[in-house]
Amino acid sequence: MKVPFFAVSRHRLAVDGTGVTTLACLHGCPLRCKYCINRQCWDHSGIRRTMDETELLSETMVDDLYFKATGGGICFGGGEPLLHSAFIDAFCRLRPKDWNIYLETSLHVARHHLEQVAPWVHHYYVDIKDMDAEVYRQYTGSDNRQVVDNLQWLARQQMQHMVTIRLPLITGYNTESGRMASRRQLEAMGFRDFDLFDYIIPIE
Questions:
Q1: Rounded to an integer, what distance in angstroms lies between the CA atom of residue 170 and that of residue 173?
Q2: Which of 53, 84, 143, 144 is 20 to 30 Å apart from 106, CA to CA?
Q3: Kind of pairing, strands 49-51 and 3-13?
Q4: Residue 106: closest CA among 81, 88, 139, 133
Q5: Is the bond leading into 79 cis (omega within 30 degrees of zero)?
Q6: Sequence-distant (≥ 6) Cβ neighbours of residue 84 within 8 angstroms
Q7: pLDDT in tens, the chain (204 residues)
């Protein structure tokens, strides 16, 4: 199956997982975040190419030695890569089994997408924005019920150790006290690995 991409970035180190990774950025996103850095995912004009799973494998096999030597692999990002869960599943069935698979996601998708890729993923990087439903809605344009539901599912599968939660401080939308409230709510689910950072506000 061919799916749309807006970028494939090679030789990334210590930013998308262990070792050397290739970031495969899939096109499309259900959110409309106010400070989005990848707005090319929002409309058809942002598509740079389409590939099926065999084409992506052929392109990434050039770095097989790097992946195996460093414990690296492929990180699927976007946009929202889980919108293309069937493609990720198909790719993972083909790729060398010693390649790690990483996923950068908002988890703002129907559960079946997460369940389809879960057997393959070694680590998740989840950008939740904020656990407060109203803050999330104001910043993304959507509610966060699917996000919370998917986090709870990961917790029920006892996968918390496989998840890094990205908790941004977003000027004009959330506060430091609100961010800490989000962290406490996530810690109550069993999540322990947090990436705390401030959004850099783009100059219009």
A1: 6
A2: 53
A3: antiparallel
A4: 81
A5: yes
A6: 3, 26, 28
A7: 899 999 999 999 988 999 999 999 999 999 999 999 999 999 999 999 999 999 999 999 999 999 999 999 999 999 999 999 999 999 999 999 999 999 999 999 999 999 999 999 999 999 999 999 999 999 999 999 999 999 999 999 999 999 999 999 999 999 999 999 999 999 999 999 999 999 987 665
